[in-house]
Known about the structure:
Elements: H1 17-29, H2 33-49, H3 67-90, H4 93-98, H5 100-111, H6 119-122, H7 126-141, H8 147-167, H9 174-178, H10 181-189, E1 195-199, E2 245-249, H11 254-257, H12 266-287, H13 289-304, E3 321-322, E4 327-328, H14 331-365, H15 372-380, H16 384-395, H17 410-437, H18 445-461, H19 463-467
Antiparallel strand pairs: 1-2, 3-4
Helix pairs in contact: 3-10, 3-16, 5-8, 7-10, 7-12, 7-14, 12-13, 12-14, 12-16, 13-14, 14-15, 14-18, 16-17, 17-18
Amino acid sequence: xxxxxxxxxxxxxxxxxxxxxxxxxxxxxxxxxxxxxxxxxxxxxxxxxxxxxxxxxxxxxxxxxxxxxxxxxxxxxxxxxxxxxxxxxxxxxxxxxxxxxxxxxxxxxxxxxxxxxxxxxxxxxxxxxxxxxxxxxxxxxxxxxxxxxxxxxxxxxxxxxxxxxxxxxxxxxxxxxxxxxxxxxxxxxxxxxxxxxxxxxxxxxxxxxxxxxxxxxxxxxxxxxxxxxxxxxxxxxxxxxxxxxxxxxxxxxxxxxxxxxxxxxxxxxxxxxxxxxxxxxxxxxxxxxxxxxxxxxxxxxxxxxxxxxxxxxxxxxxxxxxxxxxxxxxxxxxxxxxxxxxxxxxxxxxxxxxxxxxxxxxxxxxxxxxxxxxxxxxxxxxxxxxxxxxxxxxxxxxxxxxxxxxxxxxxxxxxxxxxxxxxxxxxxxxxxxxxxxxxxxxxxxxxxxxxxxxxxxxxxxxxxxxxxx
Length: 469
Ligand code: SF4
Ligand code: SF4
């Protein structure tokens, strides 16, 4: 959804001399980014393509003695959680500077068919569907345990990134803008980040899509309001020129506090809600004994209907198939994991949407401006910090494993602290969003209450993950 509200540049200190130096450095180096990306292609090959062909690690092997274990920890203990958390400090620097898939997509787009991007691909739900499908596939394949699954998921997304680039757009990144599940995560959460590229001469009227122009993610530079699609490639930054963008640093969360001036998007709000539930489902099926009971009940019921095929092994491209490691998923396993995660995604989204809708209605009663829908979308953004931490805890929990050296309980305490900080940040964002909606300070607690109750319910659902119960 594009915003047609008045463009009000984020309040930043007029003079940012250190930022000027950082900007000059990156502008000077931008022609060399390609070498970094080529080096990352090599790292990608080593971490993704090599491990499946190596001998099985023995019980004595560790990350320092076996490449497959080192690659697994590099991906799930470091890369995923740290890149996700890095958006708060550096925005989508991973995408613009390092990502081999995005670079490959753009290289393919320079020599490919260069067709116009079709309407179906521009539908804003495409990356949301892509995120849910890839996250569920990652669970049914066991992407955090098996190098073969990493090859299927990451090799497959690399192939799609190149294919998209080879078919659509000219010298751009259609995969990154429209379909990459990681790009969606990083893009949406980069709105919380401290890095911003703002137009030197902003044109009012809301964001526009620009398939022609220098931006690889099709941003109309002069109308840019949101950080979401900016991959920080620095191509639009020319310090001596009057036009283009300039780099600015800001307080983390400022864009979300003033979200009404930065192209609020209902799809993004639904994405936080769904992603929080998807991460919860992806964690809880592994943790809760009740999942195994449910699987047994469903299996027996389907067998009673004569569906004996549910016990057959699922194909290796959709379900974990590793007899040498004692794990072969049947059709029942694949269906149950997918159904369980989709149930949690839908239930969490419905609960958070209801809480946010009540908050939006109460905000209106307390004097907030706008329609119920616009208040819903703006207030939906206050769940962002909790959604971000949910994804880190649910899908990147190996980050916390080294803390066991400080004591058995240390990883749990770190997760509690992180979740607690996210709740406080959400509370702060909600307070600021309501202030801009015109709700007097003394009346803000009432519309905040339902949203915070929804976040509390998410916290309760994370109980097993955070408190280790
Ligand atoms: S959007 Fe996806 S493919 Fe593109 S640069 Fe970012 S992570 Fe890489
Ligand atoms: S807005 Fe500028 S820095 Fe951001 S992706 Fe587009 S060209 Fe690169």
